[in-house]
């Protein structure tokens, strides 16, 4: 009988502990606000550098494709062949869509370090 009571009490304790909820309690909201403002400043700087990387990547890709296309044209003229390709043939359309930095993930980690909560969701890759 004692064993049955012990098992029932253990199960009850187990079920009650499974329903417990853990919350992060901040000492003051001012600390969180200051920390989150720092995170927002870091995110703005990150996005600015990523935009610059996108523009620079596109400019570099255009310049490289033009040089390759001109070389192709010269080779065809020397061979006496016809120019069948276009400038678009020398540009990789996905080259500048590859992510070089992930500002949103860095921001989320920063906010979590401040004690905030982040709800995750899936989205399409950014278009350059």
Q: What kind of assembly state do the chains in view correspond to?
A: single chain
Mean model confidence by pLDDT: 75
Q: What low-confidence regions span 5 or more consecutive residues with pLDDT below 50?
A: 13-27
- DSSP E strands, number: 0
Radius of gyration: 29 Å
SS class? mainly alpha
**Inertia-based shape:** elongated
What is the straight-line distance between the termini?
71 Å
Helix percentage range: 55-70%
Total discrete domains: 1
For the largest beta-sheet, the strand count, sense and barrel status come to: none
Task: Report the order of strands and helices.
Answer: HHH
Determine the number of helices (DSSP H or I, runs of at least 4 residues): 3
Beta-strand residue fraction: under 5%
Can you walk me through this structure?
The protein has 128 residues and is mostly helical. It has one domain. Helix content is 62%, strand content 0%. The protein is built from 3 helices and no strands. Helix 2 packs antiparallel against helix 3 (103-114). The longest helix is centred in the middle third of the chain and has 51 residues, at 29-79. It starts with a helix and ends in a 14-residue tail after the last helix. It comes from Legionella quinlivanii. Keywords: Signal. Residues 1-20 form the signal peptide. This is Acyltransferase.
Short key terms for the protein model shown above:
128 residues, mainly alpha, 3 helices, signal, Acyltransferase
Summarize the structure.
The protein is mainly alpha-helical and 128 residues long.
Please give the structural blueprint.
Elements lengths: L1 H17 L10 H51 L23 H12 L14
């Amino acid at each position: 009988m004692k064993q049955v009571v012990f098992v029932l009490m253990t199960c009850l304790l187990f079920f009650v502990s499974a329903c417990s909820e853990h919350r992060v309690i901040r000492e003051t909201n001012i600390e969180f606000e200051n920390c989150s403002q720092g995170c927002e400043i870091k995110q703005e700087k990150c996005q600015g550098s990523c935009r610059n990387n996108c523009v620079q990547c596109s400019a570099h890709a255009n310049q490289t494709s033009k040089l390759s296309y001109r070389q192709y044209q010269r080779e065809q003229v020397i061979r006496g062949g016809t120019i069948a390709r276009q400038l678009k043939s020398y540009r990789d359309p996905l080259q500048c869509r590859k992510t070089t930095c992930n500002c949103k993930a860095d921001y989320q980690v920063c906010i979590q370090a401040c004690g905030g909560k982040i709800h995750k969701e899936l989205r399409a890759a950014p278009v350059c």
